[in-house]
Amino acid sequence: MSETAQKIHLIIKRQKDANSDPYTEEFLIPYRPNMNIISALIEIQRNPVNAKGETTTPVVWESVCLEEVCGACSMVINGKPRQACSTLIDKISQPIHLAPLTTFPVIRDLRVDRQRMFDALKRVKAWVPIDGTYDLGAGPRMPEKTRQWAYELSKCMTCGCCLEACPNVNAKSKFIGPAAISQVRLFNAHPTGAMHKEERLEALMGEGGITSCGNSQNCVQVCPKGIPLTTSIAQVNRQVTLQSFRNFFG
Amino acid sequence: MEHGKYQHFFRKLHSLAGIIPVGVFMTVHLLVNYSAVWGIDSYNKAAGFMVNLPFKYFLELFVIFLPLLFHGIYGVVIAFQAKQNVGQYHYARNWKFFFQRITGLIAFVFLIWHVWETKVQVEFNGVEANYNLMAGIVDNGWMLTLYIIGILSCIYHFINGFWTFLITWGITASTKSQKITEYIAIVLFFGLAFVGIRAILAFA
């Protein structure tokens, strides 16, 4: 390929470390068919020279599975939060703008710390407790009909796109975000998980819980896994309403 | 109030208060106003019925002013907590979320003005609450425009708030039910908007 070969134009919002100010750097990298954002970033890593021809530091990002199931490579690509691995260069317009998610603290460049999401899962006890001092045996069976929609909710990879798009998840609000609420619905639907239903609902009735949702419904639009997040939120709203009646009237 | 374990209770109370009693009162209010379309006497009679209800001050305090103040002031707090992003996410529901907060703020200012002119002046300044009071206010084209903006904001805020109320309380969970209630909400909005605007024009 000659110098005149097709180039991919990337405009990346970078940040040296957690405390420094962000800056923008542009890159022109050689085009190959069927590239994704990750392979473009690998190209910069291989040859860290910016569009002005200056040698620079390689852009840092996070990725693990490369098949849109781990949630690690979420970033803002051309204004929308999505996975870098499943975003194909051939299918988006150039120049390509890359920026870290704004909801989470930036560690460096495109790498962010999604710890608040994992803390949220702990807060709502998004698991099925099965540990005991003796073998508890097989649990109750789950109806096939429930399993089918529960499987859809289980696809959540804690990627953070829904929190990024939510206008009520920000520094002024303690809103837990859509992902954890949907997980409450998932684990409350599980026959063994349902034994701890009240604890999960009580967690969502605390500060920054489910009532902080403002129904903008951006979450369901940006979810890369197509999870019916707004249905989950409304379903958990119903569970919370009934739970608060039980708490008060007995 | 906003922080700690009572947040959930106050948010739910805020959601409920917007419908019962504030929204219900506003609907009755708009319907009473509509009687102005049938003439001055008809309006004065309908307004007279409201003014002469027994336990008026008790009803006004607990059905109108306390719920309205709570809903309004807490609503302003909630509105400013959002980080609006309609520029980035142009989805219809996100615009509705944005307008819910904008119309809430407009309604807040409008109602302070409206209560000042038609309630405070009546109670403390000896102004008489009748057809002529309103006719005097909206005689000016600017005032009429501001009133129409205020009325439409209140109606949008109530109807969209009713739609989100159904979600917030877990009544409409499925995509289908949220879609159908959205259509119903659109019809109700235009219905109430017709009543409200037709009524205010009867004074102009």
From TrEMBL, chain A:
The 4Fe-4S ferredoxin-type domain, residue ranges: 147-178
Top enzyme class: oxidoreductase
Cofactor: [4Fe-4S] cluster; [2Fe-2S] cluster; [3Fe-4S] cluster
EC number, as in UniProt: 1.3.5.1
Domain of life: Bacteria
Family label: Belongs to the succinate dehydrogenase/fumarate reductase iron-sulfur protein family.
Name of protein: succinate dehydrogenase
Alphabetical UniProt keywords: 2Fe-2S, 3Fe-4S, 4Fe-4S, Iron, Iron-sulfur, Metal-binding, Oxidoreductase, Tricarboxylic acid cycle
PANTHER family, per the entry: SUCCINATE DEHYDROGENASE [UBIQUINONE] IRON-SULFUR SUBUNIT, MITOCHONDRIAL (PTHR11921:SF29), SUCCINATE DEHYDROGENASE IRON-SULFUR PROTEIN (PTHR11921)
From TrEMBL, chain B:
Coiled-coil region(s): none
Main location (coarse class): membrane
TM helices/strands, residue ranges: 16-37, 57-77, 98-116, 144-171, 183-203
Alphabetized UniProt keyword annotations: Heme, Iron, Membrane, Metal-binding, Transmembrane, Transmembrane helix
Domain of life assignment: Bacteria
Cellular compartment(s): Membrane
Name of protein: Succinate dehydrogenase cytochrome b558 subunit
